[in-house]
Amino acid sequence: MKEAIIFVSGFDAQSQNYFLDNFLVPGLLTQLEDLDIKLDPEDVKIPGQTGKRFYHQLETDRKIIDIYEVYWNDLVNRLSSQDTKQKLGRGLSMIFYWIVYNWKIAKISPAFFFQTSIILILILLWYFGIVVLFLAAIANQPELESSTFIQNILAPATQWATNGFGWQVWLVISAVLTFLPLPINFIVDLIYFLTCYLRNESIKGTPPIRALLRNRVKQSVDNVTSEGSYDKLTVLSHSMGGLIATDFLADYHDQQSQQLRFITWGTALESSSTVADWLKLEIKKCLENPYVGCWDDFYSKQDWLCSKVPVIKSQSKSKLVSKHVSFKVSLFKQFSGESHMEYFFDSKVLRNLIMG
């Protein structure tokens, strides 16, 4: 038997196959000692895809499992890398968006509300620095020096930002932010990406990031199905990858009428669907899609960034099985978000991937 696993990874893959090489491969090779699993030293290659090949020896047969990671980091528009004016405008829009919708999140889960509130506070601290830098930049604009009226208006603000209380406060804030478990730029970029995705808006004439990412997953699925040598197809997703994969599979269809297996690890579909009503419809369509044969969803209470996939009472959920996983991690790792990566090293989760 030969199976292809298309792995839609989470946010901030630093290179092609980053999560596959650094998390999934080590997990499969070290956490399933009772299973005979071997990694082919050579990469497996098909047109358009490069991945890893595993051999799983069964009692009477050998199973070949090829895993291909969908790389999408190159499509992300990072707010932290933009100029100060863009950070000022888009950052303010992002903050207002989450202030408005954070109260909706509070209705479904106090824990989610606590998390998003902490993140929002951190982003507000980051934005304070952007305001200070913007005002300091204005102070150095020579074209404004000729206008006495403008100088009289801006002088107090620029003085506050360059030598006054504002600059002193920002020095303290920046020192505090350096002690965060995750870099503040990573947090800002992640929330900005999620905001753009949920809004489904285009930027500067480019297609919305949602459309670009759906198409990227489609390309990978098409590459694998065109190969024609696989008996089984699985779509595995983790974290933000679960949002993208669900969005894609809602409208997935296969010309050969072959069903696939869908697996989600640690998704934020519940909190995201509270903010974006269209996502509730995509979950419903995914559950009703005849080409999605089954949906195994793994979540953990020790992973504060996720919950099980939400399903309203009127929806059929016969194909969806949500399974709670208990991680043995410290409270600090839960608070810092490190527990979000524990799915890659949990034997129950990995066994489902290999044996399911």
TrEMBL record:
Stretches that traverse the bilayer: 118-139, 169-194
Keyword set includes Transmembrane helix: yes
Matches recorded under SUPFAM superfamilies: alpha/beta-Hydrolases
Serine aminopeptidase S33 domain location: 218-328
InterPro entries assigned to the protein according to its UniProt record, in alphabetical order: AB_hydrolase_fold, Hydrolase_4
Keyword list, A-Z: Aminopeptidase, Hydrolase, Membrane, Protease, Transmembrane, Transmembrane helix
GO MF assignments: aminopeptidase activity
Nucleotidyltransferase among keywords: no
Entries under Gene3D superfamilies matching the protein: alpha/beta hydrolase
Protein name from the UniProt record: Serine aminopeptidase domain-containing protein
Organism encoding this protein: Almyronema epifaneia S1
